[in-house]
Structure formats: structure tokens, C-alpha cells
Amino acid sequence: MNDLVKTTITTLEVAEMMEVEHSKLTRKFERSKDRKGYIEILGEAHLGVTDYFIKSSYKTAQNKEMPCYEVTKLGCDFLANKSTGKRE
Question: How is residue 35 annotated by DSSP?
């Protein structure tokens, strides 16, 4: 019976809950010219990235494969902290 328990949610679901565009959320996972991505930040801290996020994909209505991530409970906590943390 425990096999039926889902242990992750997708970034599509997270974006909907956070009321942000999925593309804007997933861009934060990868490095850009001016900032580190969440994946790099976790790696530098010697934390297991797959304990937080697992690279995945989904198909659009046009049958196009697009990137997304499976997010664990730790990943949800990380994203919640990043979205509500005070910026200085």
C-alpha cells in the first residue's frame, strides 16, 4: 500500500501553488549569466540535489517535450524559504 504514496510533486504543481509562471520558476534552477541556480547552490553546499529536485519533463498540448523537475518535501521547503525569505 505504501507504494501508492506519491513522494514528489512537479514544478508545474509548485508554480500553480506559488502563483508564478512555470518557466520563471524553472529558470531559477539553472545557472544564468548573472546568478547561480538552485542546483548549483545545493551542490556547493554538498547537499544531494536529488534529495530536493529530480530533473524530469512533460509533454505540452502540442506534444512538445518540456523540462520540469520533480520536487521532494525538502525541495518544497527550500522553494518556500527562497520565495518568502527577506532580501537585503
Answer: B
User: Domain extents for the chain?
Assistant: 2-82
Do residues 38 and 61 touch, judged by C-beta distance below 8 A? no
Q: pLDDT digits over 29-77, tens only?
A: 988 889 999 999 899 999 888 899 999 999 999 999 999 999 999 999 9
- 5 CB-side CA count, 13 A: 5
Q: Are 58 and 65 in contact (CB under 8 A)?
A: yes
- E strand segments, the chain: 9-10, 53-59, 65-71
Instruction: Tell me the whole-structure pTM to 2 decimals.
Output: 0.79
Sign of CA dihedral 63, 69, 72, 78: negative
